Amino acid sequence: MSDAPRPDPIRWADAGLATRAIHAGQDPDPATGAVMTPVYQTSTFAQSAVGEHAGWDYARGGNPTRDALEVALGSLESAGHGVAFSSGLAACDAVLRQLAPGDHVVMADDVYGGTYRQLDRVHRRWGLAFTPVQLDDLDAVAAALRPETRLLWVESPTNPLLTVFDLAALAALARERGIRTVVDNTFATPALQAPLALGADVVVHSTTKYLGGHSDVVGGAVVTDDDALAEAYRFHANAVGAVPGPWDAFLVLRGIKTLPVRMRAHCAGARAVAEAAEQLPAVREVLWPGHPQHPGHDIAARQMHDYGGMVSLRLTDEAVAKRVCERFRVFTLAESLGGVESLVEHPGAMTHASTADSPIAVPGDLIRLSVGLEEPADLIADLEQALAGT
Ligand SMILES: Cc1ncc(COP(=O)(O)O)c(C=O)c1O
Fold it and tell me: pTM for the complete prediction?
């Protein structure tokens, strides 16, 4: 080894997002020099004496691959702590479990259907109350807050209506009343939106989507700057076992490396598809925050770097919407979103079926497109042929 002095290690926290995505928590393996984070496929760790070990004892409590992911997750959101979960809904559950029976949550009236179902059919049974509200009406939000309200749950843009909410205004309103704001940042990702900088206390993600980015893993994350909350989330993950395995942690970590560059391409593709959809007579309405007529466009322009990779379309009626979903050839008819391949779905019958007959039911004439990384011209041609003659 040369005697030349080694440079001081870089503080990744000071680097730009693309650099942090590739390096934060992902230094070469000190034991072997492996450039990629090893997958520590083990359930337990040897102890040199009773209670003495290298930092890990049993893999439900911690695993070095998961630790690397958690550092990367925190770093992406410029936060002190990231905690990885086995799914996005496990992450939501960890946040809601910090509340107590009798506590109240205010949330958007078009949150992700699974979040609503969890509150309605799991947490409600254990004494949580919640009120869905139009979060773009700050007076309505203020009126819905009760003395026992503990959380304001915001998703922006929302799934699947792509509604955009003013995160700074909502977080300020909640903070005035001593209420925490949680933002589900799954659709925007840290590449486009930084909720903590806008005043939120906690960010949740389904890492199944853009963070993983390749439709090959289910995972979730909670990110916060609050030390005590982070400790509580970590305790919860271990206590209930809602943790990702090492392979899943590795896959999310690998996806994160390309997040910034993928998001640029997703956004450009979605813009091309949304603008083409505007021209199609079969499309009654294009829901895409980049459109100047979108009700949340000005807020999105302010609080996001770009408008995301999702586009929803309202067609003539429910029967047409379902039929059209089955006619795509490049877009695959499937639930989920945020992968390299384009997907189409009918939220009313698929991802949001559990919200039928609820206050947050989605319109039947809606289809949702997750615009992948294929050539935008091929996606537009596919959309045109799927809608032809409808
Ligand atoms: C906005 C949003 N939040 C949370 C979730 C739940 O994540 P998961 O499916 O990883 O449990 C989803 C899933 O579609 C989602 O779209």
Answer: 0.97
